[in-house]
Design goal:
The chain is mainly alpha-helical. 55% of the residues lie in helices and 5% in strands. The strands form 2 sheets. The protein has a 3-stranded antiparallel sheet with strand order 1-2-3, with no helix packed on it. The protein has a two-stranded antiparallel sheet with strand order 4-5. Helix 1 packs across helix 3. The chain is elongated, with a radius of gyration of 22 Å.
């Protein structure tokens, strides 16, 4: 039983509030991940006080925010941010604007992004032993894709003849076409010919319940987000890169290299 289910069973009126929350987020077209994070945060604060989040006082809210800020083991601000955003949404939904206006502001940390050199990128793309990982990193860098975007690319989205990639329902639920340049169409054509993916360009693997072995299947899901992050970080490690590299670092590197090559910043945007 997850946290939301537990709160629906134990906390009076939470189930009603949760159903109203689901209806409102669906109407507004909020992303599933946003709904999940907000719902979890609402359930956690409800279980903490054993009452609906809509009936909390400002003192209770501030006490809880202090609690999660003080008890954070990883140092991550995400639980704090999700709680404030979720409470703002619910208080607005319930017409409690006065209490909503008293919630603390979320201050964004201004950090410079990690940017790799062209030599470091070349090393990262050439060093993985798996072809899938090499092509994955090349596509992330070559098109400046987000993690969720690259895992959702299907074979049908790659237009080799026109040298473009169709990125579907990305951030903000927007489609866009990304130019593949001169090398990526050749790389992708060879990769598809060798790996023969049927649906997802980067398929995941299934686990054989009997033998415990992993295998590719026509019905396998796409590559997992954690697997993509691991592949990128492992490639950086093998390439001897000491910077803290993740998938989004390749997106920043893509934009920076275009800027350094003289591409207009509005075109990059």
């Amino acid at each position: 039983m997850n946290t939301v289910q537990q709160a629906c069973l134990q906390i009076p009126d939470f189930d009603i509030l949760y159903q109203k929350f689901l209806r409102k987020t669906t109407i507004l077209g909020r992303a599933p991940s946003t709904c999940t994070n907000y719902a979890r945060s609402l359930a956690q604060i409800a279980l903490h006080y054993n009452q609906s989040p809509a009936s909390l006082t400002l003192d209770q809210i501030e006490e809880y925010l202090y609690h999660i800020k003080d008890k954070s083991e990883t140092g991550s601000d995400n639980p704090f941010k999700f709680t404030i955003c979720a409470l703002r949404f619910v208080l607005n939904m319930e017409g409690l604007d006065e209490l909503k206006s008293k919630l603390p502001a979320i201050r964004k940390k201004r950090k410079l992004p990690v940017v790799l050199s062209k030599q470091e990128m070349t090393a990262m793309m050439n060093i993985p032993c798996l072809l899938k990982h090499r092509v994955l990193i090349a596509l992330l860098y070559g098109c400046g894709l987000r993690c969720g975007e690259v895992r959702n690319v299907k074979v049908a989205d790659v237009d080799i003849d026109r040298a473009v990639l169709h990125v579907r329902q990305a951030k903000g639920r927007k489609d866009r076409y990304m130019p593949l340049g001169k090398l990526l169409p050749v790389i992708l054509e060879k990769y598809i010919g060798i790996q023969k993916p049927t649906e997802w360009l980067f398929p995941g693997m299934r686990l054989n319940a009997t033998s415990g072995e992993r295998f590719y299947s026509d019905f396998a899901p796409q590559f997992g987000q954690r697997s993509i992050q691991w592949a990128v970080q492992r490639a950086a490690q093998l390439a001897g890169i000491t910077k803290r590299v993740n998938v989004h670092s390749l997106r920043h590197t893509y934009a920076t290299h275009l800027l350094e090559d003289g591409v207009n910043i509005l075109t990059i945007k």
